[in-house]
Amino acid sequence: MGSWIQILSIYYLAWFSFFVVNTVSDESGYDEDVKKGNVVIDGSSVIGNIDDDFICATLDWWPPQKCDYGTCSWGLASLLNLDLNNKIFLNAVKAFSPLKLRLGGSLQDLLVYGTDDYNKPCTPFVRNASEMFGFSQGCLPMPRWDELNHFFQKAGAKIIFGLNALYGKSVHRGHTERPWNYTNAESFIQYTVGKNYDIHGWELGNELSGGWSWSKCLCRSICL
Ligand SMILES: *[C@@H]1O[C@H](CO)[C@@H](O)[C@H](O)[C@H]1NC(C)=O
Ligand SMILES: *[C@@H]1O[C@H](CO)[C@@H](O)[C@H](O)[C@H]1NC(C)=O
Predict the structure, then answer these.
(1) Are residues 119 and 30 part of one domain?
(2) How many whole angstroms from 133 Cα to the centroid of ligand 1?
(3) Beta strands at 170-172 and 175-177: parallel, antiparallel or unpaired
(4) Greater pLDDT, 148 or 216
(5) Dihedral (CA of 177, 179, 180, 183) sign
(6) Is 173 exposed, middle or buried (0-12, 13-18, 19+ CB in 10 A)?
(7) Quick one: 37 and 121 in the same domain?
(8) CA spacing 20 to 30 A to 103: which of 10, 26, 76, 113?
(9) Does the beta carbon of 117 lie inside 6 Å of ligand 2?
């Protein structure tokens, strides 16, 4: 439980910083009402502690077709296409050992897992402007999950995996309907446990209570 609190506190800090930076420096015209403001942080009350050796990074799911501000910067940096045989990458992760790697981001709530219960073709994300975040549902094939875990084991990373908390729900701007369908997440966890992959933490949904999120949910609707 302690480590969960630690991770969550860092996570909220990261989210908070992102939000502040984004709000102040966003020049894309996305939010025309951007105003500068002052943020006061009450440092006198500690809400969580992190390990002395805490260092954390994220690997995301965005495909090469993800473009912002005229640049498609993701290239082959996704969990689905990253070159796991790249020695520089391996050594970089090793150098921070034990690096906590959080696997997730916006598309995690559109990701399904190619386990036995998922009886449709396990296909990657495809661009579709009508869908949340501009992409269709994508799938993580289990052979790729195996390769990723072998890499994490070799590199000595600790993994925090962000589960899809919107599977089975229908999302309209501002709220969600229908219960979470957990069967695919459950079989993914079972597969992972069956393979003895060591997962340091499971995260449910990507920042779904964040006011800025496209898929803003009432917390109550996703709490189990
Ligand atoms: C794009 O998404 C919409 C909404 O889910 C769907 O109706 C449509 O068929 C999709 N288009 C393609 C090309 O898959
Ligand atoms: C939940 O998802 C599984 C696939 O993972 C599907 O077979 C099942 O029908 C879904 N359940 C509901 C209630 O939609």
Answers:
(1) no
(2) 13
(3) antiparallel
(4) 148
(5) negative
(6) exposed
(7) no
(8) 26
(9) yes
| Residue 123 CB less than 6 A away from ligand 1 | no
Residue 28 pLDDT more than 50?
A: no
Whether the predicted pLDDT of 149 surpasses 50? yes
Please report, as a single letter, which amino acid is at residue 136. S
Distance from the CA of 220 to the center of ligand 1, in angstroms? 29
Cβ 147 under 6 angstroms from ligand 1: no
Measured by CA distance, the residue closest to atom 5 of ligand 1 is: 131
In a domain, 50, yes or no: no
List the single range of 71-80, 182-191, 206-215 with lowest mean pLDDT.
206-215
Residue 37 CA to residue 123 CA, distance in Å, equals 44
Res. 96: pLDDT tops 80? yes
Residues 81 and 187 in one domain: yes
Q: 181 alpha carbon to ligand 2 midpoint, in Å?
A: 6
